[in-house]
Specification:
Elements (H helix, E strand, L loop, with lengths): L1 E5 L4 H12 L4 E5 L7 H4 L9 E3 L5 E3 L1 H11 L10 H36 L6 H24 L10 H15 L9 H11 L4 H4 L19
Parallel strand pairs: 1-2
Antiparallel strand pairs: 1-3, 3-4
Helix pairs in contact: 1-3, 1-6, 4-5, 4-6, 5-7
Amino acid sequence: MRRLYHLPFDPASRKVRLLLAEKKLDFTCQVEPVWERRDTFLSLNPAGAVPVLVEPEGHPLWDDRSICEYLEEVYPEKNMLGKTPIERAEVRRLMAWFDIKFGAEVTKNLVGEKIQKRLFGTSTPNSTAIRAGKQNVHYHLEYIAYLTEQRNWLAGTELSLADITAAAHISCVDYLGDIPWSQHPDAHDWYARFKSRPSMRDVLSDTVSGIQPAAHYTDLDF
């Protein structure tokens, strides 16, 4: 069986987990403490980063974008990247938006400061970064609302890797209770639809020792 080495609150890892689940591919998860730099893990990925997906025949794949492209090519029965070049370009654009822009402006400032620093034991959270993350998230929720005013899902009529990527980041932040859903009802409605999918069940079971999830985190009718 394929194995995914991951960290629960790493959006790149969550993205791959969600895609595997949406494609209904069997896999097991193994939490990888990357800060320990285990030799056996470094033999799979010399960069020492998650996610790493080891296919049943033993071939390791790393870098979440490369893994997703591989899964789309090898298991195309459920297309999550788009059917035409224009559709695929839009999905990839939005994946980059959430991985790069949302990641830098929101995820890094909230999940990075509150969760990842705790796990890595590097330093105390930066209150300035946390304030910036809480402010920046409004812009991104407004953009989600703008997209869903025109489309059924973020990139078009069909669920895609754009939605998976956005949900991977947002679900990590939502664990902390830092998504102001009441101020952004359209973004809330999009996330509620995605959150109710079976692929999210395993993700929503993740916890962090010493940090309680927001009361609504696992509630599908939040």
